[in-house]
Amino acid sequence: MAAAQASAFIRALAQANPEPKPELEYRDAFTLLVAVVLSAQTTDVAVNKATATLFEAAPDAAAMARLGPEGIAPHIRRIGLWQAKAKNVAALAEQLLARHGGEVPREREALEALPGVGRKTANVVLNVAFGENAMAVDTHIFRLGNRTGLAPGDTPRAVEDALVKRCPPELLRDAHHWLILHGRYVCKARRPECWHCVAREFCNYPDKVAGPTSG
DNA sequence: ATCCCGAGGG
DNA sequence: CCCTCTGGAT
């Protein structure tokens, strides 16, 4: 897909969603970071429920560190991998205090050095919370990038690089939400619903699904 | 059965 | 590259 077509693809999503409602509701760096750390192999809805009570008990790194794994666990028992995540989040809060004055660092290296934080989580925080030139690639965006031709690549990193290169810079931040929501609800893994896709005319997917009964 | 906004370790 | 950690929705 040419660069111009990639821009048109993303602009079509933008026009359809002037005020995108993110699945994970947080834009503040600390709450977003914790929410994303909790989100592996779990639905966004479950994470939002868990974090609602968790952040009431511990709205910042200091409070979260005080809570500790045993204090965190009861809030997140309904989500997958909660035992490891309770430890990670507690350790994460402690390191934020010990090494970053209780704030979330803005540097990729510092972010990825935190327990439970890999490249994907770091990219979400860099992009969504800090507005940096980064793009997180999850399973949805990976699939969408390849299927549509928007950002092809055989590794998440390759898809990431293609997206950062092709997305208009001023749209990069919100594109994260647009793409992930589009991947979840329209360009789905099993039955992509091409018949009401707003970017259909810019998509290279060869077998565009015609209607609900054809998939 | 299969999937979900992964990271860490072998 | 592979595996494991884990629960809930569909």
Automatic annotation (TrEMBL):
<feature type="binding site">
    <location>
        <position position="197"/>
    </location>
    <ligand>
        <name>[4Fe-4S] cluster</name>
    </ligand>
</feature>
<dbReference type="Pfam" id="PF00730">
    <property type="entry name" value="HhH-GPD"/>
</dbReference>
<keyword id="KW-0456">Lyase</keyword>
<dbReference type="InterPro" id="IPR004036">
    <property type="entry name" value="Endonuclease-III-like_CS2"/>
</dbReference>
<comment type="similarity">
    <text>Belongs to the Nth/MutY family.</text>
</comment>
<keyword id="KW-0227">DNA damage</keyword>
<dbReference type="InterPro" id="IPR005759">
    <property type="entry name" value="Nth"/>
</dbReference>
<dbReference type="InterPro" id="IPR023170">
    <property type="entry name" value="HhH_base_excis_C"/>
</dbReference>
<feature type="binding site">
    <location>
        <position position="187"/>
    </location>
    <ligand>
        <name>[4Fe-4S] cluster</name>
    </ligand>
</feature>
<keyword id="KW-0411">Iron-sulfur</keyword>
<keyword id="KW-0479">Metal-binding</keyword>
<keyword id="KW-0238">DNA-binding</keyword>
<keyword id="KW-0378">Hydrolase</keyword>
<keyword id="KW-0540">Nuclease</keyword>
<dbReference type="InterPro" id="IPR000445">
    <property type="entry name" value="HhH_motif"/>
</dbReference>
<keyword id="KW-0408">Iron</keyword>
<keyword id="KW-0234">DNA repair</keyword>
<keyword id="KW-0326">Glycosidase</keyword>
<protein>
    <recommendedName>
        <fullName>Endonuclease III</fullName>
        <ecNumber>4.2.99.18</ecNumber>
    </recommendedName>
</protein>
<feature type="binding site">
    <location>
        <position position="203"/>
    </location>
    <ligand>
        <name>[4Fe-4S] cluster</name>
    </ligand>
</feature>
<feature type="binding site">
    <location>
        <position position="194"/>
    </location>
    <ligand>
        <name>[4Fe-4S] cluster</name>
    </ligand>
</feature>
<dbReference type="Pfam" id="PF00633">
    <property type="entry name" value="HHH"/>
</dbReference>
<keyword id="KW-0255">Endonuclease</keyword>
<dbReference type="GO" id="GO:0004519">
    <property type="term" value="F:endonuclease activity"/>
</dbReference>
<feature type="domain" description="HhH-GPD">
    <location>
        <begin position="38"/>
        <end position="185"/>
    </location>
</feature>
<keyword id="KW-0004">4Fe-4S</keyword>
<comment type="function">
    <text>DNA repair enzyme that has both DNA N-glycosylase activity and AP-lyase activity. The DNA N-glycosylase activity releases various damaged pyrimidines from DNA by cleaving the N-glycosidic bond, leaving an AP (apurinic/apyrimidinic) site. The AP-lyase activity cleaves the phosphodiester bond 3' to the AP site by a beta-elimination, leaving a 3'-terminal unsaturated sugar and a product with a terminal 5'-phosphate.</text>
</comment>
<dbReference type="InterPro" id="IPR011257">
    <property type="entry name" value="DNA_glycosylase"/>
</dbReference>
<dbReference type="InterPro" id="IPR003265">
    <property type="entry name" value="HhH-GPD_domain"/>
</dbReference>
